[in-house]
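Project standup — Tuesday

K.O.: blocked on the structure for the chain from last sprint. Re-posting the sequence here as requested.
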Amino acid sequence: MRGRAVLHLRVIAPLDQSPAVIDLLAADPGVTHLAVLPGAARQPEGDLILCDVVRERADNVLHGLQELGVEARGGIAADDVELTVSRAADRAAAEAPGSGADAVVWDEVAAKTGEQTELSATYLVLIVVATMIAGIGVLLDQPILIVGAMVVGPEFGPLAALCVALLRRRPAVVGRSVQALVVGFLAAMLATVLSTWVLTLAGLVDRDMLLADRPLTDFIWRPDALSWVVGLLAGIAGMLSLTSKKSGSLVGVLISVTTVPAAANVSVAAAYGVWHEAAGSALQLVINLCAIVLAGLATLGVQQTWWWHVARQVRRRTARSRSAGG
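H.V.: unblocked you, prediction finished:
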């Protein structure tokens, strides 16, 4: 016996839909610990149905519930259960093809990324602060400040949401994601230009610092083929971290890309009128943003195709089992 991470489902099903919901859950090989409390739900009214589902079958189960129209008159809630010690859960995981670590729960991913498209005050403050830190790091030629700015920057959220929305064809989310990115970067770059002028007036920085040799940070405004490679790899790692719940890897992803530092270099160079460096940084920013989105879309597309194949295998296995039982 081994502990497993599963998804706990809480379904409120109207009385006329409850039998179909119970049949759906009972027939799925990845569902276990099924419990039904008749008439327990009050708002909305109906039966309360509880179960655990292994992650590799969670997306199919949620899709099946939505096809029944449960969410229209009832409700579906899902929570992560980090540890379930149960032989029944072990059997469910063994019968469900694929690996739970690689499973993609699309509704979960869409909900998680959808929240990050909101143009909130927190998002704006974080991206402004990150860009200002990176601006100082550029002038001081200090990689540690650049790394810190990358970690603080919240731009990967809208980028991930944009990839998911493009794949799932949700134009409203695409619009919100683009708005968050454009407004966020414009606000951050304007604030960094102003902060650079203020620091210059205070005598803390000057134009010569930008024009001096900066061997540790001049890569930010000198894009090359490796800029595409780094952006593509970061997009792949970021999407895998998001869909597989290995969010700790996102720290490495954020350190690997140069979106915020590039925006900061554009701002500082523009503040001092060094336009060739501003142009190079702007190109670096565009390259990284495009590469992350392209790699993210490709990664999600491969994952979606793979899990469609896995789901087809399950349907065939279930059909064979029913035929043999008949």
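K.O.: great, moving the ticket to review. The chain has a mean pLDDT of 85. The two ends are 32 Å apart (CA to CA).
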